[in-house]
C-alpha cells in the first residue's frame, strides 16, 4: 500500500460505517469492502478476503475485528485504535440512550409495548442465526465419522445452553480440543494447546458478584465466544437473568433486540446488560471489557494471521467448536421463548418465524415491525407481560 491514510480520514470513514452499519456483520463487511477495496482502493480484494478469513478464526465479534484489522493495515496500531473506536462508539452511545429509555423505572406504556413486541421476535432471530450457520459448518466437517462427531458437538452445544448456564464456554472449548485430539496424527489426546488460541483457555471462574462478575460476563463475550454475535445470548442470559438478577427475562429479550436494531456490532448488547447491572458506568465498563480483546488480538496478532490460518490445530479447533456454537445458539431459543408471558407475544413470535425462516427476509425490519405490533397491542388494551 503506497498511500498513507490520515487518522482523521480513518476516524471519519470508520465512524460513518459505525453510524450507518445496520444489519450486523454482513452489512459491516459489505461497507468495509466497498470503502477499502472498491472506492478508495486502499486494500486489494485478495488482501481484504484474507482479513475476513483471519478474523473469523478468532473468538469475539468478527466484524469489529475486521474493522480494527483493516484500519491497522492502513496506519498500524494508531489506525487500529482510531478506526476501531470510531466504528464502536456511535452504536454504543445510541444503545446506552435506548437502555435508559427501555430500562427506566417507569417508562411510558407504549415503550413497554414496543419492547415486549421486539423481544417476542428475538427467539426467531436466534433460530435464524443458528440455521444460517449450519451449511458451511457441516460442509467443513466432512462426512463419515467426522459428520457424526459434528452432530454430537451440535447436540452438546444445545444441551449446554439449556443446562450449564455460565459454564457453556467450557463445553465450547472442550469440543474444539476434542476435535484436535481426534484429528491429530495417530489419534489420542495431546497436551499441546493450539497456538494462537491461548486466550480461549483462560480460567473459567468468575467473581461472586458486583463489578467483577460484570467484567467476567463481558470478557466471555469478547474473548471466549465463537460463531458471531448471537452466541452472546447463551453466554450472557443465565448470568444476567438467573445468577445475578440484573435483568428480568423480558428485559434481556429487549437487550438482544436493541443490539440488533442499533448500528454497529451486535455485541453492543453487552452494554445493555452492563447498564442494567450498574448504570451508565456499568454499560461503559461492559463494552470496554467486551471489545478490548478484539483490539488486543489485532494489535499483537495481526502480523501472525497468515501463520494462524495455516495452523492445522486452529482449523481443527474451530471444526469442533463451530457446531457446538450453532447448537448453543439454537438451544438458547428455548429459554428465550419461555421468557414470553403475554399471549399476544406468541402471535408475534409466530409471525417473526414465518418472516425470517419461511420468507427468509432480513432481521432489522422484523424487529421494528414486532416493536410496532407490541405498541399497537398495548394501545388496544392488551396486557403487558
From TrEMBL:
What InterPro entries does the entry give? Chr_Tranpt_l_chain (IPR014047), CHR_Transporter (IPR052518), Chromate_transpt (IPR003370)
Subcellular location per UniProt equals: Cell membrane
Q: What's the protein here called?
A: Chromate transporter
This protein's UniProt keywords: Cell membrane, Membrane, Transmembrane, Transmembrane helix
Which family does the entry's similarity section mention? Belongs to the chromate ion transporter (CHR) (TC 2.A.51) family.
Please list every transmembrane segment annotated in the UniProt record, as residue ranges: 80-104, 110-133, 153-177, 252-278, 284-305, 317-336, 342-359, 366-384
Q: Which domain of life is it from?
A: Bacteria
Keyword Cell membrane on this protein? yes
Q: Which PANTHER family match?
A: CHROMATE TRANSPORT PROTEIN-RELATED, CHROMATE TRANSPORTER
Q: Which Pfam families match?
A: Chromate_transp
| Annotated membrane topology | Multi-pass membrane protein
